[in-house]
Specification:
By secondary structure, the chain is mainly alpha-helical. The chain contains six helices and no strands.
């Protein structure tokens, strides 16, 4: 007669205590079972589970920031901070041009700070919110 191994005893005791009852996904098929496995399955699962966006290549991330700059600065209260945000973005654009990290040629132009500040100021004034230097 074989004696029960330590691990088998631990599993049996856990089953008796009900430790395996009502686990998440219990009684459901294993997601992706039988399908070809994506080598980045764990990363995609993590991003989905944590409700994170898929990281974009630097070029696309910068373009997205440029598209959203008006919304990014909209809630800022001072012109100084708006200028700092735009200047920081411009610095990152110039750095990306120098590095070409993801193999793509960076053809993104830097932003003109003054028109963005003027648009920010006009938006705040139209909303009746104060504009600080």
């Amino acid at each position: 007669m074989m004696s029960e191994s330590w691990i088998d005893a631990q599993i049996r005791k856990a089953e008796e205590r009900g430790d395996f009852d009502d686990l998440p996904g219990s009684g459901k098929p294993i997601p992706g079972l039988g399908r070809r496995q994506d080598p980045n399955w764990w990363l995609k699962g993590y991003l989905k589970r944590e409700k994170l966006d898929m990281p974009l290549p630097e070029t696309l991330a910068l373009r997205k920031e440029i598209e959203q700059i008006a919304d990014t600065v909209a809630e800022e209260r001072s012109e100084k901070v708006v200028r700092e945000i735009v200047t920081d973005l411009n610095t990152r654009i110039v750095d990306a041009r120098r590095r070409r990290t993801d193999g793509l040629k960076i053809t993104i132009a830097t932003l003109e700070v003054d028109p963005i500040v003027e648009a920010w100021r006009a938006r705040r004034e139209a909303e009746g919110r104060p504009v600080r230097p």
